[in-house]
Records
---
Amino acid sequence: MTNSNLEELKNKVIELKKKRNAVILAHNYQLPEIQDIADFVGDSLGLSIEAQKADCKVIVFCGVYFMAETAKILSPQKTVLMPDPDAGCPLASMITVEDLLKMKAEHPNAKTICYVNSFAEIKAHCDYCCTSANALKMVESLPYDEFIFVPDRYLGSFVKNKTGKTIHLWKGFCPVHLKFIKEHIAEARAKYPGAKVMVHPECSEEIVAAADYALGTEAMLRHAKNSKDEKEYIIGTEESFIYRLATQVPDKKFYPLSKTGICPNMKKTTLEKVLWCLEDMKTEITVEESIMQKARLSIDRMLEIK
Ligand code: 13P
Ligand code: SF4
């Protein structure tokens, strides 16, 4: 697409968005052109907060399915649209309600926490929901010593190692973050000797151990903004986040940890699809009433811990 076509498309989206009284929410992993036309760009926690407080009739959610579903649960009166509803999260699909119920039966005294990267049905069966931004704080602050944590084994073990609490883990993982290997860190450190390595806690234990910081996306951004001495960073998460970092912190340099950090589902949302979605008012995301009510309890608890 030429630059003038891209600008034309962006302008069309912005115009139609106003007409529809819509707000566009985009995750940090969305393509740069999607981030450019969004009203709010952020991590899972920030997007949930925005979805709830946005003063609009329609939310166009540019991210993956569980995120749009969470937005719908938090704002049932708004129409939530996804430009491509096939944008799923493989991690969220790695646990079923049956799996969870079995785990709960095996550990009847444990409190259940699900990572927000899970379906509403799973959230409906959990006591608490968390994001990468508040998982550690949540487990630290709750007055319990035994938890079931689903579906991400790596975020769960990160929290387990940091808190020392008993945490029963499920075997889910993010296929994108698991593709980062130790050699990537060694190569990147050799290439950019002054740079600090920041990785997402969905990465494997050995990557987290080899990095300087393990943080959720928004915490990475905050850290880069606030640090006085550090000028360069190697980023171990989805590649499009580098665009957000570079836009928000223009005086520092950001390098991807490797070329493998691409979430194909996050890339399914394109500018054309955003335009069509606003034109046709499709595809609307709905959640069954009984699931919605139960899931809301664990999601509300997630929003209490920032
Ligand atoms: P954040 O909430 O840190 O943005 O992460 C969401 C996600 O899907 C990570 O892969
Ligand atoms: Fe899911 Fe991983 Fe993509 Fe995040 S990066 S949406 S966890 S597949």
Note: Residues 177-256 form a domain with the Rossmann fold fold (CATH 3.40.50.10800).
---
Amino acid sequence: MTELIHIGLGPRSYNVHVAPGIAAQAGALLKPFARGVVPVVTDNNVAKFHAAGVIGSLRAAGLEPRLVTLEPGEQIKSFAGLEKLCSLLIDSGVERGGLIVALGGGVIGDLAGLAAGLVKRGLDFAQIPTTLLAQVDSSVGGKTAIDMPQGKNLVGLFHQPKAVIADTSLLATLPRRELLSGYAEVVKYGALGDLQFFAWLEANAPKLLGGQSDAVVRAVAHCVRMKAAIVARDEREAGDRALLNLGHTFGHALETAIGYSGVLLHGEAVAIGMVMAFRLSAKLGLCPHADGDRVGHHLQAVGLPVSLDSVSPRPSTDELLAHMMHDKKATGGKLTFVLVRGLGKAVVSDDVPLAAVREILSA
Ligand code: NAD
Ligand code: GLY
């Protein structure tokens, strides 16, 4: 059965379709939004496994797909990568008002979404996310971006897709480390706003990570529903949407420090960052230490890193603090942090003493 989640954003509303095998219906689902050539943007890894099926489905629906393949990895989320993609899209013959399909993980989704917002002053796009991270988070909500040497996602646009097709069976080809990286974002939803879901994950992680279809669909749909509710009330992150950044201020600083090099995947950095956010919250007297221990224990139990000691070489406290000050969540020289008043109760705070952050980073 398909889980259908509506992202209610007035004229920018769309549906997220979650089901195993649903990519076979991509043509029928996207036909209403397509005209002329439909570039399908993907990377070499994803293309190997999943491009033929999607291209075939689009063709069967009478569309004109053109495969646009990029090299995999975070480093393509750069000005050079954006220039390359924009050029390939223009060469593809996509027309003004046409549709682009982003077939891939968060990297392809973020980059293709941004290019769609820019090429010919704005094309439509659809997401067919192929990683767990992209299915539960990055394909929904319209954040698109490239990274800068100063920090992650610093150049981008809000550009909502026309549809998201989350085919959970595409995850079967995902390397285990990538699956786990996405799982960190799944845990994030429980940790930020749903203790019951967190407890469900503690009990069901082996099924989910073992690819049991019901568990995967249930988790993906649950996360998308949580994100839908948050995005619907705060599309442009003026308030509540920042809750989705639990663990990300620490995590982004780490990713920047290691130069997006693959030493740490995004979700791995978020896992470490989440534990640090709980530790910081406990240090500030907001939540019991035991909550941070519980989150750390679960992340560790599934095989995710939870401390800076697992990063080699370990970035210095000063370096991480400097990256945090550059992060776009720093306003007026103060750091904005997502803290927790307990498991499942995240809050945004712009009043965090730097000394406490320094202590957490040096621990
Ligand atoms: P990714 O896109 O780099 O994909 C991970 C790796 O898996 C890549 O090597 C890719 O080629 C490969 N891959 C993807 N799908 C596959 C499949 N089905 N089978 C085999 N291999 C497959 O990484 P990601 O973790 O999906 O995304 C991380 C990015 O997402 C980061 O840049 C992060 O900033 C961004 N992000 C964006 C948002 C947002 O709201 N826009 C939210 C969270 C994260
Ligand atoms: N992943 C954070 C957001 O979409 O706002």
Note: The mean pLDDT is 95.
